[in-house]
Write a structure and sequence with these properties.
Blueprint: H1 8-13, H2 15-22, H3 25-40, H4 47-68, H5 75-79, H6 83-90, H7 99-103, H8 105-109, H9 119-135, E1 152-153, E2 157-159, E3 176-179, E4 181-184, E5 187-190, E6 194-196, E7 208-217, E8 220-234, E9 239-252, E10 265-267, E11 270-273
Antiparallel strand pairs: 1-4, 2-3, 3-7, 4-5, 6-7, 7-8, 8-9, 9-11, 10-11
Helix pairs in contact: 3-4, 4-6
């Protein structure tokens, strides 16, 4: 289903394919799965979120059966039924994700074993020694490869001190810089990307801003954004049609509720963007 994404540019230019794709149970199944993943990665939830998730799972399984047949179901399809109860008991699902533990499997699969008397102890000891080797050097000092080494900021240029008036967090007595790209915790924000600036993760009326510049002063990182007005929403393709406004705002990058930047799709004079919270960049197309 995910392979359909790379064919979306063709859909825009082949109008006769649009109707058949939008009504296809395969496409509808993908859109419902997309919503399930979006809610699963949300940082904030309420009782309405849980009910919405349980309803989506039911509709998704029915649509999946219509598209692929019941025999194509996997055990993970059944596990989706329990996500609502898990969210109700433990909170947002992203905080109980087992992805990091799944990654550990590769370490144990690469090793060879000769002692099967107490395999659990052998696995635990070898993994403990491996982590210790990653954290410390032979001189018993911390390594930079294991711990977070800091943000990555592209080449910067110094700004005039008067630019500090753009935001109350900036100090006009300190040096101010402007850059086109910055990476925070492996998430890259670049000029031209769009960000969601609402105060909640899944707003009813989203407000987008196009990054014009990234302002840096010590540990403060701000985004200067040109506001984008939502013209319409295409339910079938899950894309918002936008229009650039003649006004801009400056937002603290740490205040973003929806942390993932989105690339803007431009077709003729129209701009489009799609919200896929579980990806860093989405619908990467050029005119």
């Amino acid at each position: 289903m995910f392979t359909l994404i790379k064919y979306i540019p063709l859909i825009f230019y082949q109008a006769h394919l649009l109707q058949s794709i939008c009504t296809s149970p395969h496409w509808l199944s993908f859109l419902q799965l997309r919503e399930i993943v979006s809610i699963s990665f949300a940082s904030e939830i309420d009782t309405t979120t849980i009910k919405q998730l349980e309803k989506l799972v039911t509709h998704y399984l029915i649509t999946f059966d219509n598209a692929y047949g019941y025999v194509q179901r996997l055990p993970k399809h059944h596990l989706l039924v329990h996500l609502g109860d898990q969210m109700n008991r433990f909170g947002p699902l992203r905080f109980t994700s087992c992805m990091i533990f799944e990654k550990k499997h590769s370490f144990f699969k690469k090793m060879k074993y000769r002692n099967f008397r107490n395999i659990a102890v052998t696995l635990a000891r070898r993994h403990k020694h491996y982590i210790a080797a990653q954290m410390y050097t032979s001189n018993n000092t911390s390594t930079s490869s294991f711990l977070y080494s800091g943000h990555k900021i592209q080449k910067v240029k110094e700004l005039d001190s008067s630019a500090a008036m753009q935001h109350h967090l900036l100090d006009p007595k300190q040096i101010l810089y402007e850059t086109r790209q910055v990476t925070l915790f492996r998430i890259t924000y670049a000029v031209g990307d769009a960000v969601l600036i609402n105060v909640c993760v899944f707003p009813i009326d989203p407000v987008f801003g196009k990054i014009l510049a990234v302002i840096v002063q010590n540990k403060i990182i701000l985004l200067r954004l040109q506001l984008l007005q939502v013209i319409s929403f295409n339910q079938q393709l899950c894309v918002y049609e936008l229009r650039l406004l003649d006004c801009s705002v400056t937002e603290n990058i740490y205040d973003l509720k929806h942390i993932w930047p989105m690339q803007v799709l431009k077709i003729s004079e129209s701009l489009f963007v799609s919200l896929f919270p579980y990806e860093r960049t989405n619908l990467i197309f050029n005119e």
